[in-house]
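User: Second chain of the day. Same drill as before.
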Amino acid sequence: MPKSRHLKKGGRRHSGRRGRDMRAVLIRQIAHLPLRECHINEDWKESRIASIFLARNRPDGRLAFGAFAVDLGCLGVKSAFAHPAVSVTEYEGRLIAGQPTRPVRCDPAFAVKLIQGACDYAAQLGFSPDPDYHYAREIFGDIDPANCPDSIEYGEDGKPFYIAGPYDDVEQIMNQLRRRLGPDGFHFLVAFDPEGRIDLFGEDDAQGEGAHLMMEGDHREW
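Assistant: Same format as last time:
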């Protein structure tokens, strides 16, 4: 899965608008192909991060696919990617089997509803999706999220919930949430060391056992 665009400080270089437009055309051309499968990580409810893969069968035996990393807490689509043609071996061996948590099949209408809902929720907070989402979403084709009756919760206990990732610009995101919601308007989870200092995912133990602490309405300066 591509790294988050809500990124390490300094951001990352994305392809330009023209490149994304060209890829959107390529993906749009195969979005009518038969749907093969849709996967989501088994622990998405607990982790509040959904890794979604959607694949379509090509007439030549290869697959077209889209991959989306979705933060249900507040950031929406953190990364997205789509490819019009990969081998089944590469898709199953490198992409699906290579996920850190077990992928399980899910209803495509549910997956699209979750992705689009996360984008809408993030937009209310001032966060935009990964620019590559604007071409990768073409893989949805005619999947209609209205066919999914399930309710999906965003945030946590009625408030946005920010879980800091190792590639996030944490200070920028926290400042955005404070400006929009005030210091007590959201939950957040960041790495924390025993001496009481916030550790923004250092190299030694980025997400070690006991390294996280939830703080609500914290006024700590960054």
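The beta strands are 35-41, 49-57, 63-71, 76-86, 103-105, 161-163, 187-191, 212-216.

User: Great, on to the next one.
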